[in-house]
Write a structure and sequence with these properties.
This protein is of the alpha/beta class. Helices cover 32% and strands 22% of the residues. Strands 10, 11, 12, 13, 14, 15, 16 and 17 form an eight-stranded mixed sheet that branches. It is globular.
């Protein structure tokens, strides 16, 4: 049986989902990660071997036995391995499009493809200086997203002056970000499409989901989400995959404008989303689809093209981060914890990653002050 090799980033939730999905099906899985990484995937019972890299992932990969299906769980690793795509393609079956990683992760190129596919894109700018940023004129709020890796996912501001102050406070220049008009609406107006467009078959599989809460309200990663039946999200995702001529995994994100009911393209990733395990209870498994595409394509013929469900996905630490920003919640906000759900980390058949993540969570709770301040604000409000 063809094995799998998973390159895991620091958090490891995405890589853990891949390791579990394949390991539960009896597929041998090995993990590669930086030696200093806090990732949790390598302690999974489904990880056969762990290869720690001190500095360079490519040096470790060059020393491994060829033939496995190679997965990469994050954009920085995709970009770092992109220059070695041809070499790696000679040794492994690439689940991710390493040869097109720089193109497919370029935000300007993504927005162009979205327009080509007939999907609305928020008005956008690429200011090269503080003067160009100050000159932006719009009646809408602004959001800035880093072009390269940064310590933040996005910054939201009322106007250009406030956005400039926020960028300066983080040591970031206007040339480091793309600035867009912010699409109004809560976290629950953000929808996602998880897609696998096969290389071996003319088939494109899509699951639709939506965020309920993000780690940073308004501009974070999913903390609590829900698998939903959203045909328009699935259809837009297919159009993007076709317009980009992209095969393999595509994880898309759209927002439904609360004011005019119009869908806007937000972004995509040419790899599984952080919350890819949201699909499992609906029978949608990105990691296994990719393995089948390279190792046993006939398995794909039995799968439906569209998937939906009515269950939740919960990352407890991510939801606690959200709580530190918005500690006041009504009772309905806690219902996902009582309903049918998929935990991001906890699993009865694989408890070691959860135990390791709990240690990290305890360190965050006791060392940081954000959670204590949030509890204090909540208590004061109820007093």
């Amino acid at each position: 049986m063809k094995s799998a090799l998973v390159c895991v980033g620091d958090a490891g939730i995405n890589g853990l989902a891949t390791v579990r999905a394949l390991g539960r099906r009896g597929i041998p899985v090995d993990v590669v990660a930086l030696e200093s990484s806090a990732q949790i995937a390598s302690v999974s019972r489904y990880c056969r071997r762990f290869y720690p890299a001190r500095d360079s992932l490519i040096d470790v990969l060059r020393g491994l036995e060829p033939g496995a299906v190679l997965y990469v769980d994050n954009d920085p690793m995709l970009k770092a391995l992109a220059p070695h795509a041809a070499e790696l393609a000679q040794r492994f079956a690439l689940a991710d499009p390493l040869d097109r990683a720089l193109e497919l992760t370029d935000k300007a190129w993504q927005m162009g493809i979205a327009r080509k596919a007939g999907i609305a894109v928020p008005r956008s700018w690429y200011p090269a200086s503080w003067e160009e940023l100050s000159a932006l004129r719009t009646s809408k709020r602004l959001i800035a997203k880093p072009i390269a890796r940064a310590e933040f996912k996005a910054l939201i501001a009322a106007d250009a002056a406030q956005l400039a102050a926020a960028l300066r406070s983080r040591g970031v220049t206007p040339a480091d970000v793309v600035v867009q008009e912010y699409v109004e609406g809560g976290d629950d107006q953000i929808y996602a499409g998880l897609c696998y467009r096969a290389r071996s078959r003319e088939r494109c599989f899509v699951l639709s989901a939506r965020k309920l809460r993000q780690t940073e309200p308004g501009a974070g990663v999913m903390a609590v989400g829900q698998a939903v039946d959203a045909p328009q999200v699935r259809e837009m995702t297919r159009r993007l995959a076709k317009a980009a001529a992209a095969c393999g995994v595509i994880s898309t994100e759209f927002k439904l404008d609360a004011r005019d009911g119009r869908w806007y393209f937000i972004e995509w990733n040419p790899r599984p989303a952080y919350f890819q395990s949201i699909g499992w209870k609906a029978g949608f498994d990105l990691a296994w689809m990719a393995w089948c595409d390279h190792a046993d394509p006939a398995q794909l013929d039995a799968l439906p093209r569209s998937f939906s469900g009515d269950h939740y996905w919960i990352n407890v630490q991510g939801d606690l981060l959200n709580f530190t920003k918005r500690p006041v919640r009504n009772a309905a906000a806690w219902l996902p914890y009582l309903r049918r759900k998929q935990w991001a980390v906890f699993a009865l058949d694989d408890p070691a990653p959860w135990r390791k993540s709990v240690r990290h969570l305890a360190e965050w709770l006791f060392r940081g002050r954000s959670f204590g301040r949030a509890l204090g604000r909540l208590a004061a409000r109820r007093a």
